[in-house]
């Protein structure tokens, strides 16, 4: 009986996915707009101000539902925060710990060495708080989604009223850039001025989406600048080596006819 139920559930899931895929195919491929970032191209670098604003968006908006299990608070020094600022950010959250001498679990202020605090005790609690949907971890989300930062920016700015004749299921929201166009996450960036940036930048929805997309790109690939700098040095070395090899070849075979 249990096996029959599992097979039936799997068949129903497959049919649902097939119908969704067919609907997307029928509507045509979704075009993700190309958003220009400072880290684009082979010589691009991160804008530290943009990364700090993006972290503010994650902390004030996204962290209520989404974890970043691969990031520690001390990593924030890489986006330009001072050691004291990182310590203050970490101390502003309560980290589950224990057991203590009495065998009890407890919470304590965070330390720079702690991983980012998970918003829920477990996946069941996360689903219960989000109508059955499990918010994905954002540590490498720009690597896990085709389009990377462009996709995240498009998703965050793609909420709008559904087109005429389309029925959105209960608990879902229309998003023109999400596959199938129905997403369980409500618009996280809903209005201008939702946050107040410390550097005075105007917090439009587009700006907030750009900033948090850049921050999530850095989180997924913090070594990008180092890797690109190493690549440039390697290319320069190979160019010099190639020139020397050519000069030695010319010298060696100069008298050979």
Automatic annotation (TrEMBL):
Report the InterPro entries cross-referenced here: Cyt_c-like_dom (IPR009056), Cyt_c-like_dom_sf (IPR036909), Cyt_c1 (IPR002326), Cyt_c1_TM_anchor_C (IPR021157)
Q: What is any one of the record's Gene Ontology cellular component terms? A: membrane
Please state which protein family the record places this protein in.
Belongs to the cytochrome c family.
Highest taxon listed in the record's lineage: Bacteria
Q: Does the keyword Transmembrane apply?
A: yes
Mind telling me which residue stretches traverse the membrane in this protein?
Answer: 230-248
Q: Where does heme c bind?
A: 62, 65-66, 185
- Signal sequence span is 1-25
Q: One of this protein's Pfam families, by short name?
A: Cytochrom_C1
Protein's UniProt keywords contain Iron-sulfur: no
Protein name, per record: Cytochrome c1
Query: Can you quote the record's cofactor note?
Result: Binds 1 heme c group covalently per subunit.
Supply the source organism for this entry: Teichococcus wenyumeiae
Chief place of localization? membrane
Q: Which cofactor does it need?
A: heme c
Q: Which Gene Ontology terms cover its molecular function?
A: electron transfer activity; heme binding; metal ion binding
Q: Mind listing the UniProt keywords for this protein, alphabetically?
A: Electron transport, Heme, Iron, Membrane, Metal-binding, Respiratory chain, Signal, Transmembrane, Transmembrane helix, Transport
Localization: Membrane
**Which intervals hold domain Cytochrome c?**
49-220
């Amino acid at each position: 009986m249990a096996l029959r139920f599992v097979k039936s559930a799997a068949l129903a899931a497959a049919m649902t996915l097939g119908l969704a895929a067919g609907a997307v195919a029928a509507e045509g491929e979704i075009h993700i707009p190309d958003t220009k970032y400072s880290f684009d191209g082979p010589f691009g670098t991160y804008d530290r101000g943009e990364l700090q604003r993006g972290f503010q968006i994650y902390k004030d908006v996204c962290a209520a539902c989404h974890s970043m299990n691969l990031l520690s608070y001390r990593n924030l020094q890489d986006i330009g925060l001072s050691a004291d600022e990182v310590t203050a950010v970490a101390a502003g959250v309560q980290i589950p710990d224990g057991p203590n001498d009495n065998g009890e679990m407890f919470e304590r202020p965070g330390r720079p060495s702690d991983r980012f605090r998970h918003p829920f005790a477990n996946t069941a609690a996360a689903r219960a708080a989000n109508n059955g949907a499990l918010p994905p971890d954002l540590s490498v989300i720009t690597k896990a989604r085709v389009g990377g930062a462009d996709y995240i920016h498009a998703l965050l700015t793609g909420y709008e009223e559904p087109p005429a004749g389309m029925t959105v299921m209960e608990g879902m929201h229309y998003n023109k850039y999400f596959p199938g166009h129905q997403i369980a996450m409500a618009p996280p960036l809903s209005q201008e001025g939702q946050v107040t940036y410390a550097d005075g930048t105007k917090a439009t929805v587009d700006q907030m989406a750009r900033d948090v997309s850049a921050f999530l790109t850095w989180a997924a690939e913090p070594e990008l600048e180092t890797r690109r700098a190493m690549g440039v040095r390697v290319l320069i070395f190979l160019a010099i080596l190639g020139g020397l090899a050519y000069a030695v070849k010319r010298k060696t075979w100069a008298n050979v006819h």
